[in-house]
Amino acid sequence: DQQVKQNSPSLSVQEGRISILNCDYTNSMFDYFLWYKKYPAEGPTFLISISSIKDKNEDGRFTVFLNKSAKHLSLHIVPSQPGDSAVYFCAAGVRGGSEKLVFGKGTKLTVNP
Amino acid sequence: DTEVTQTPKHLVMGMTNKKSLKCEQHMGHRAMYWYKQKAKKPPELMFVYSYEKLSINESVPSRFSPECPNSSLLNLHLHALQPEDSALYLCASSAGTGGRYQPQHFGDGTRLSIL
Q1: With an 8 Å Cβ cutoff, are A101 and B104 in contact?
Q2: Across the interface, do B50 and A99 touch by the CB < 8 Å criterion?
Q3: What is the pLDDT of residues B29-39, one digit of tens each?
Q4: SS3 per residue for chain A
Q5: Using one digit for the tens of pLDDT, what is the confidence trace for A18-50?
Q6: How far is B99 from chain A (nearest CA, A)?
Q7: How far is A9 from chain B (nearest CA, A)?
Q8: Is the peptide bond before B8 cis (omega within 30 degrees of 0)?
């Protein structure tokens, strides 16, 4: 049973445009969400997070939006750069309990020059 | 550069061998993790150590044996592995457990191949 779903295996955008990566979750106990970026032959790198008490968190070019009623979050990258080309994982966890993170399957983003 | 260091980067071993994977962090983090990642799949949690005590074992077979000698080090001892255990093994650490969630920071992994 997949509790965190990234339904788009890949996404291609032009440099300078917006990239929107989507993530859905089914477990209403999740109250903290993270995005990780992974280049080939490297481990995942933490990008940005959001807790369930917020609906938006921004860090430079990266913004995460959370819609709790829809159990949906998205990562916006503006403007997209070729160096952003990587696999992006959405992850979810429960604060105050175990430190278990559940990951989605990832979306491969390609930013074309 | 990652602040979580994993060695070796690559490991090839036979099914009867015994080997160990090592992970080190010097960020003062008190929680450390082992994940397994197969190709085109997300990382899957194996073990969590919190303040040097095993807090989560995700029903991992006993041929994988974790050890946390101190707050900076995490080992994964391997014995009698199967070909399906070939994968990328990722170590991660975070500042602590409970309360405000702290993101996990990952090493670059050990690519393990079982012959």
Answers
A1: yes
A2: yes
A3: 999 999 999 98
A4: CCCEECCCCEEEEECCCCEEEEEEECCCCCCEEEEEEECCCCCCEEEEEEECCCCEEEECCEEEEEECCCCEEEEEECCCCHHHCEEEEEEEECCCCCCCCEECCCEEEEEEC
A5: 999 999 999 999 989 999 999 988 899 999 999
A6: 4
A7: 10
A8: yes
